[in-house]
Amino acid sequence: MEADKNEKNPWMCGRCQRALVLEKVKVRYLEGNFEVELYKCPQCSQVFISEELALGKMLEVEKGLEDK
Amino acid sequence: MVSDQYETESLCPVCLKKIPAFILTENDVAYMYKICPDHGRSTSVLWRSKIPISSWIRNKERAFIKNPVTSVKQGCPFDCGLCEEHRQHTCTALLEVTQNCNLNCRFCFADSHPAKEKEPSLEDLRKQYQTVFKVSGSCNIQLSGGEPTVRDDLPDIVRMGTELGFSFIQLNTNGIRIADEEDYVRRLKQSGLSSVFLQFDGISDEIYKKLRGRPLFEKKVKAIENCRKFGIGVVLVPTLVPGVNTGQIGEIIRFAIDQAPAVRGVHFQPVSYFGRMPHAPSDEDRITLPEVMEEVTKQTGGMVSAQSMKPPGCENSLCSFHGNYIIEGNVLNPVTKRESCCCGTTQAEEGAKKAKAFVARNWTGHDCETGEQQKVSSDWDMILQKIQRNSFSISAMAFQDAWNVNLERIKDCCIHVVTGDLRLIPFCMYHLTNTEGRSLYRNLEKGSLYEADAVRTMDP
C-alpha cells in the first residue's frame, strides 16, 4: 500500500478509537533498520500495515535482506 | 588441556587411504590427529580461537540427491559423482572450460600453466551443463579453469548456459583480459554473465609479485572499472597466505567498499595446500577461519563486528563464515547476527535454496550502474533501491587439503566440479592432492591414484 497524504485516512485505532496518522516509523528486519511512513495511532503508537503492503513491498524488502 | 574432542574420518596425505582422525581442542586450538598404518602420524591445525570449534557447529538434517550419478561401492570419498550418500545439493557447479592460463602462480588450486592443453569443446560443455541440470536443477554456475578468459568463445559458453536455463553465471578470473579488452567484457555481459569472481590478493603490487609472479594491482582496478561499465557484479577473492597478505584484510575491505556497488563483496580464501604449492604446510602456514574473522574485526577498527559473522546454512559449518551488510556512507551496517545458541536442527535442503538465492541476488551486477535510474515512489522503494545498490557481503571459505580433510565436511559439500566424464565432484575432493601432487579425481588422464576404482564406480 502506498499511503497518500492527501487521501482521507479511513483507519481508526481499534484500541484508542483515534484516527491513524501518517508518520515516519522505525522498522527493523534481521539487523537492518529503516525509516518508513506508516499509519500510526497518535495515542498508543500501534501501526497499521495493510495486507497489500505486507505481501508487496514489505515482503520484497524482507526477501532482499534474507540471509543464506 | 584438552577441552573438546571428537572422531571423524580423513585421508593419509601420502597414500590418500581413508583413516580415522581425531579432532582435539587444546588451549583454544583445535587440531586434527591421524595415523596411517603405512605412513605414520600427521597433525594439522584446524581452528585457533577463543570461540570453541564446537560452538560454531550447526546441526542440519541432510538432503538427498534426487538423481545420483554414482552408486556407493567403496564409501566416501571414493564414489564421488555425486553418490546417493552425499548429503547436500549443488549450490554452485563449476565448469572448467580450460586448463590453460595466462599466469603461472606460486599457489594454484588447479596447477594450471601457460602451456596449451586441449580444451573441452562447446559440445562437451553442453553435456556438462545438461548433467548439472539433471542432477542439481538450475543451480548457480561458475566458469573456472585454468583461466577461462583465454578462450575467445567464452561468451558463447556463457550464452549456452543461460539458454539451457541457468540464470546466474559467474566467471572465476584473474581479471587480466577483463582489464585489457572492453569489447570482450561487453560480449560477456550480452551473453548473460552476472558476476565476476575476481582473484584479488591485496592492494599492493608486492603481494601480486609474490603470489602471482607479476604486478597486477592496476589490472585489477581496470577490470573492476570494465565490469562497472557493463553492470557485471564483482566479488573480490583474496587467497590469504600468512606472512604475505593477511595484514591487508582491512585494506581490501575498505577498497571494496570504495568500489561498491560494482564490487558486491569480499570472499576470502585461506590458503589450502593442494594443486601447486611451494611446500608441505606447517601450522604457521595456515590461517584458520576464526582467525580471519578476528582480523576482519581488528583491521576494520571494529566496523565489522565479530557477532555479524555467522556459520553457513548450506555447506558444513566448519567450511565458511559470512556476514551481510548495508553500506551507509563508508560504513558497513550489519544485517546478520550470530545467534549465541546453536541448538536445534535446520534443513540442509532449505540452506541450499537460500544460499543459491542469496548469491544470485547479492553478487549480480545491476543495471543502475549502467546509468538507468529506477522509479522511486515511496520509502519502501527507497529501501529496496538501497538494498539492491548498497548490499555488501564479507565471507570466507576454508578449503580442505590432504592434511586437514574431514570427510564429514566433504559429505556436506555444495560446490561441485563437473568432470569431463560427467560426474559432479565435491570441490575439495576434486582439487585435493597428496604429497606428490597426485589426485583422486582431477586430471584422471594423467594418472590418478584411484583411477581404476573411480572408473569402476561409474554407473552406465
UniProtKB/TrEMBL annotation, chain A:
One of its GO terms (molecular function) is DNA binding. InterPro entries: DUF7479 (IPR055902), DVU_1557-like (IPR054656). Keywords: DNA-binding. It comes from the Bacteria. Residues 10-68 form the DUF7479 domain. This is DNA-binding protein. It comes from Clostridium boliviensis.
